[in-house]
Amino acid sequence: MTTHALRLAMPAVFLAACLASAGAEGASRRNQAAIDGYVAQMSTAEARYREAVVRLGNADPEARADADRALADMEDALSGCARTEGCPVSTLVASYARLLKEAADGAAAFAEGDGIDPDEADPDHAGLDLASPAAAATAGAAGGSLFDERSHRFDEMVPYNPAVQAAIRRWLTDMRGQLLDTYEHYEYLRPLMWPSFQRAGLPEALLFGILAKESNGKVHAGSRVGAAGPMQFMYATGKRFGLGQDATGFDTRYDPRASAEASAAYLLERMAELDGNLELALAAYNGGEGRARRVFLASGGRGFWDASVNAQFPPETRDYVPMVIAAAWLYLHPKRYGLSFRDVDARPAQLLLQRPDSLYGLAICLGDYGTRDGYLRTLRNLNPRLKPDTMLPAGTQLQVSTRMAGLYERYCVQGPRATLAQALLASDARDALVRAGGDAKPAAPAASSRPSHYQVQRGETLSSIARKFQCTPQALAKANRIKAPAYRIHPGQKLSLESCRQ
Fold first, then answer.
1. How many CB atoms lie within 10 A of CB 12?
2. N or C: which end of the chain has fewer CB within 10 A?
3. What is the pLDDT of residues 145-199, one digit of tens each?
């Protein structure tokens, strides 16, 4: 193995975080000993790494492991220094940046000296000056959009074998639209979901791969066998990891933050009992942890791609594992495969409704500016507790993006599009029916002539009745002692309309 193949796994966002702590001046005497230790650890590890690089070039079989251990020591020194007041983080970051620069230069020299076609180099990392701490700090200030967590650590965790390649082919043909949709949904969900995987030390690409295969990034996804949410937890498994009905009756399997935390915890637990084998952990995620454990122990610890091991999983699981890996691979290498992921402005913001509205109404008046399919899915993903047809009172706080907040102020508070959205929400197809006398059914009775009670018809919901009589579902539910958040009603049920007569 040549030196160009070495990859430094420290995320640039972490370097930026370290640089942000470098401004602390002075150190207490109590901290000084620790600071000296971190500086010495960094220097020693850097020397060990350089020595390992030389040995690697001479085909020393132990050199790679020694280089990895040296890198781990450097990362530990940086992490400890960042937590210690007065520690010269920028000095330690500079050591790490030197190695990044040398690794990049070595890769370029290898490509030129060995006649590699530049077009065959990885285009997804072209033009990034990884050696520049200033660039890393800029990336951190921008929310990590330049570097993200897209290190190629995931590349080294899984094989690029024919099964993965066949799965890539599927994502790039029949399933390309779903992959592109997943990316757009994930960009909005990223601040909620990625921190859990980051804390667990799991690659971001893995999170994206699971999300793509399980739900295409749709928070309210459900399966025929009862799995639910963006990470598709079965009820019993989710309960083990803190998911389920909360005090309001909401199933937190649909909460993106909670489901990501549970998913990361589940994967760590599986990998701990499966000797760190990621493919088997994914097989357990899909095909059951009991089966994966039994197969692993019975095989003497052989991996998922061993024919005798692979054959013991159902076809769905044999398909699932390479599909997750392939989606993760494409997340890391989109340009290599001709993928153009949409540049999404997903900066989070909060929105206070200035007038009663619903997610459906907002989706209409926001339009589709900057998106392919509009904002309904994003509104639902970021506000999973709300039903899309529920009329929300003024003052309700919603999670949105900064772009959506701007569009709301422009189009949804007042004006022709806001009026149109409200009219479309209030429409009822039955109002188009003409009675025997030739008169069309009135859209809604005037306030003074509205009935005091109403009998629920088949197919109606509390929200549709509230819209019909121009009141909020919450007021109608309270007047009729209907419990939130389900607001269950049944045909023939009589509802008091007193709250709608005001």
1. 27
2. C
3. 323 345 566 777 778 899 999 999 999 999 999 999 999 999 999 999 999 999 9
Q: For 348-417, what is the HEC assignment?
A: EEEEECCCCECHHHHHHHHCCCCCCCCCHHHHHHHCCCCCCCCCECCCCEEEEEHHHHHHHHHHCCCCHH
Alpha-carbon gap, residue 329 to 160, rounded angstroms: 9
**What angle do helix axes 256-273 and 176-200 make, rounded to 10 degrees?**
70
| Residue carrying structure tokens 């602390």 | 24
> Tokens 């909620």 map to which residue?
192
Range in 95-104, 328-337, 447-456 with the lowest mean pLDDT? 95-104
Q: Give 219's DSSP letter.
A: T
Q: Rounded to whole angstroms, what are the CA distances from 347 to 16, 187, 255, 412?
A: 19, 9, 19, 20
Say how many Å lie between the first and final Cα of the chain, rounded: 79
Q: Which CATH superfamily is domain 447-500 in?
A: LysM domain (3.10.350.10)
Q: Which range is least confidently modeled, 41-50, 151-160, 162-171, 321-330?
A: 151-160
What amino acid is encoded at 17 in this protein? A
CATH architecture of the domain with residue range 160-337: Orthogonal Bundle (1.10)
Contacts of 314 (CB under 8 A, 6+ apart): 287
Instruction: Provide the residue type at 139 as one letter.
Output: A
For 496, which DSSP code? Answer: E
Q: Which of 436, 366, 400, 333 is nearest to 126 (CA)?
A: 333
For 182: left if phi > 0, alpha if psi spans -120 to 50, otherwise beta; the answer is alpha
How does DSSP assign 452-477, residue by residue?
A: SEEEPPTT--HHHHHHHTTS-HHHHH
DSSP 8-state secondary structure symbol assigned to residue 444 = S
**Residue 178: CA count within 13 A, CB half-sphere:** 18
**Any idea which residue has 């309210």 for tokens?**
220
| Contact partners, residue 315, CB within 8 Å, separation at least 6 | none
Look at the block and give the residue holding tokens 């009775």. 445
At residue 228, the 3 state secondary structure works out as strand
Summarize pLDDT for 199-222 with one digit per residue, the tens.
999 999 999 999 999 999 999 999
Distance CA 173, CA 252 (A): 34
Q: Is residue 434 helix, strand or coil?
A: strand
Q: Rounded to whole angstroms, how far apart are CA atoms 151 and 493?
A: 58
Residues in the chain: 502
- Per DSSP, 498 falls in state G
Domain ranges within the chain, ordered by starting residue: 3-147, 160-337, 348-426, 447-500
Ramachandran angles phi, psi of 97, nearest 5°: -65, -35
